[in-house]
């Protein structure tokens, strides 16, 4: 386990949080908000655990990349919709840097 793995965990948790916050804002009423959050966060966690996690259920590299793009990219988009621009840009840079370091550099897997 490296420092980048710890950083990646926090990036993943924050990504789920941003997606959940975005989903919460989609519904006009409490029941619909809860449904949106359960569906979006549930789908993200299920896909991540199945394909993108270090000990994923399925070892399909192309699917892992696709899920990372979907979940992390979706969180960057949610960041731009929810956060002030400078924080959204910071989040985008952090996500790209952390993900790039998982594939290249001294912390590559």
Automatic annotation (TrEMBL):
| Residue intervals passing through the bilayer | 6-24, 31-51, 63-83, 88-105
**UniProt keyword Glycoprotein, yes or no:** no
In terms of Pfam families, this protein maps to: DUF2568 (PF10823)
Superkingdom assignment: Bacteria
Keyword hit for Mitochondrion: no
Keyword terms of this UniProt record = Membrane, Transmembrane, Transmembrane helix
Q: What is this protein called?
A: YrdB family protein
Query: Origin organism of this chain?
Result: Metallococcus carri
Question: What is this organism's lineage?
Answer: Bacteria, Bacillati, Actinomycetota, Actinomycetes, Micrococcales
